[in-house]
Amino acid sequence: MTSPLAPAISAQQVDRFASHGYLVLPDLIPAATIQELRVEADDLLDQRLAQMVATRSADPRVTWWRLPDGTPYVLKVKPVVDLSPTAAAVADDSRLCGVVGDLLGAAIPTLMDNKLMFKRTVDISAGWATLPVLGEEVRKHTDAAYYAARGYPRVLTVAVCLDPCTAAAGALRVWPGSHRRSIEMAPTLNQGPVVPDQDAPDDAAVTLVAKPGTVLIWDAALVHASGPNTSGHPRRLLVLGYSPTSAGRSR
Q: Which of 57, 116, 204, 248 is most buried by its number of CB atoms within 10 A?
């Protein structure tokens, strides 16, 4: 595998991350590595889906539901670093970890979460599956409380863009500075706690449009969301979570 080429980040970028809660780092991962990740991501998903159909049973790694029209929809597969050698190599790359370490103030950050985000419909026979009916959007939320409950009080999320992340493809939306204030959360039946609109007005959001090879980094306490992928093209992400300590276990 071609190793990621992660340049050092500047003091200005560290300061910006502290105030805004996110960074966009273009061209961080080489095209050859991105292509390897795409191939492994698709193979991994195809294998999990085929196994589910063959056994007529759910895979605990796969998060999926039905859209209102009945079509099965896969959000993510988690964990993946034990199934994708390229994902594991990217997650462990010393230069990428160096960038994360600079932002966390930790010499050696700990990988504590990893997944592949797909956000796509799948053409499989799934009449046997009992699934909730949901839309395609990922609603406004933060991950900090969930991670804190697992013993990780501080987490940075790193997303490697495998495809063009355009607004039409459901690019990530963030609310700058929201990681620095208390955020109200409202429970939902199937999508976990979400952030009410009054705490994250739509007009305060920034859409992180990015090309393949870009790395997005945000504080887990930052409010974020994403819309449906209406582009007609894949919008895959390798998402990694890092903490400054070795509390808990990666999963």
A: 116
Q: Report d(CA 62, CA 78) in Å as an integer.
A: 7
Q: What tokens appear for 14 in the block?
A: 């560290």
Identify which of 242, 236, 251 has the alpha carbon closest to the alpha carbon of residue 98: 242
Distance between CA atoms of 162 and 76, rounded to whole angstroms?
14
Q: Quick one: DSSP state of residue 233?
A: S
Residue 153, token pair as written in the block: 């009080």
What lies within 8 Å, CB to CB, of 164 at 6+ separation is: 210, 211, 212, 231, 233, 235
Does the pTM of the predicted model rise above 0.85?
A: yes
Residue-by-residue pLDDT tens, the chain, 251 positions = 444 444 468 999 999 999 999 999 999 999 999 999 999 999 999 999 999 999 999 999 999 999 999 999 999 999 999 999 999 999 999 989 999 999 998 878 999 999 999 999 999 999 999 999 999 999 999 999 899 999 999 999 999 999 999 999 999 999 999 999 999 899 988 888 999 999 999 999 999 999 999 999 999 999 999 999 999 999 999 999 999 975 444 33
Asked if residues 145 and 193 have their Cβ atoms less than 8 Å apart, the reply is yes
- What is the H or E stretch that residue 51 is in? helix 31-55
- Preceding omega of 4 cis (within 30 degrees of 0): no
